[in-house]
Amino acid sequence: MEPDEAETPAEESNLPPQGTLEWLHYWSEIEGHLPSPINVSITGSTPFKCPELKWYNFDIYPHKIKLTNTGYTLLLSAKWTTERPYLEGGPFLEKHVLSQIHFHWGANMMEGSDHAVDDRRYPGEMHVSFFRSEYLTQEEALHHHDGVTMICYIIKYGVSPDERLSWVLEGINRVQEAQTNTRIGPLPMSRLLPMFFEDYFLYWGTLETVKDEKYVIKWLVPRTTLFASLEQMNEFRRLWGPWDEPNLRNYRPLQERGGRHVFFINPHWAQYNSLLPISRVPEPSISVLSPAYRKNSWMLPPQNRANEAEGFHFEAGLKSSSSRCLQKTI
C-alpha cells in the first residue's frame, strides 16, 4: 500500500462539504456507535452554524397527558387530537415530532444528571425525545441512525421551586409504585420546556436501553436549563423501582468522549460558562403555529380557541424567533 493511501481513511472520499448539514449528519455514521452520556463543554467543542431551530405547536393544549412510573424513570406522554408539536430547522434535515419526556436523578444534590457539563454533574436531567416524522413511530425511528433526537435539559439546584416542574410533580403521589400511571394537566408543552433557537451542544452517540438494545441518537444539550428545589428533587426519590425499593438514582455512568466531535451550535451568549445562569424572569414562548393550524383554526383545542378570542399571542408567534429578545441574566 502506498503511504498516501494509508494516511487517507476510506470514508473521507464520501465526506460532504464541511459546514453543511449533510456534513454534520455524516458523523452519525462514523461516531454514532460511541457510547453516551459524555461531558460537554465549550472548551474543546467545534462551533457550527445552523439555521434557527423552529418550534411548532408547543403552545397547543394536548387532549390528555399521562404520567407513568415505569420503575426506571418518570415518563410523561401526551396525545393531541390533531397535529402534534414538532421541530424544524436547526440541525434537522426534516421534521421531527415530539414523542415523550422522561427524567434522571440521583440520591443527593451532587449527582443525578446523565451528562456532565464542564466536568460537573447536576441534581437531575430531563430528556425530551423527538423522532423523524416519516418513520411514523419512535419505535421504527430508533432503527435508523437519523431517526431519533434527544434534547437533554440539565436541572440545576434552585432555592425556590421551578414552576415548570411543579405541575408535573403534582402527580407523583399517585404513581409511587412501579408500573402505575395517572393523568395530569393537560397543559401545553411550552409550560414545561425551555425553548431555544441557538446556543446548544450536539453530538452523536449510542443509547443503551434496560433491555440491552443499542440505538444511534442525536444528543442536544442546551445551555438553557431547568432548576429544582431540594423538595422537588426529593419527590423523584420517593418513586419505587421494580423491586419494591426506592429508586434513588437512575442516571447512567459517564462515558469517554473518545475523540468524537462535540458541536457548539450557533454560539451567542457570554461564554465564560458552558451553561447559562438561571433566568430571573420567565422566558417567553417562541413556539409558532404550524401551517395546518393557521389554515384550519377549527383544529385548535377549545382552550386555544378561547385564548385566540381574547387576543392571545398566536399572531405574534408567527414572527421569527430571532426578532425576540430572550430575557436572560447573563
Structure notes:
Residues 8-266 form the Alpha-carbonic anhydrase domain. GO terms for molecular function: carbonate dehydratase activity; zinc ion binding. The protein has helices spanning 3-7, 21-31, 138-141, 163-169, 230-237, 291-295, 302-309, 314-317; strands at 39-40, 46-48, 53-56, 64-69, 74-79, 86-89, 96-105, 116-117, 124-132, 148-157, 180-184, 200-208, 214-222, 226-228, 263-265. The chain is α+β, with helices and mostly antiparallel strands. The chain has one domain (15-276): Carbonic Anhydrase II. It is globular, with a radius of gyration of 20 Å. The model is unreliable at 1-10 and 311-330 (pLDDT under 50).
The major beta sheet can be summarized as: 13 strands, mixed
Distance between the termini: 55 Å
Strand content: 25-35%
What is the average per-residue confidence, as pLDDT, rounded to a whole number? Answer: 90
What is the name of the CATH architecture?
A: Roll
Return the domain count.
1
Question: Over all CA atoms, what is the radius of gyration?
Answer: 20 Å
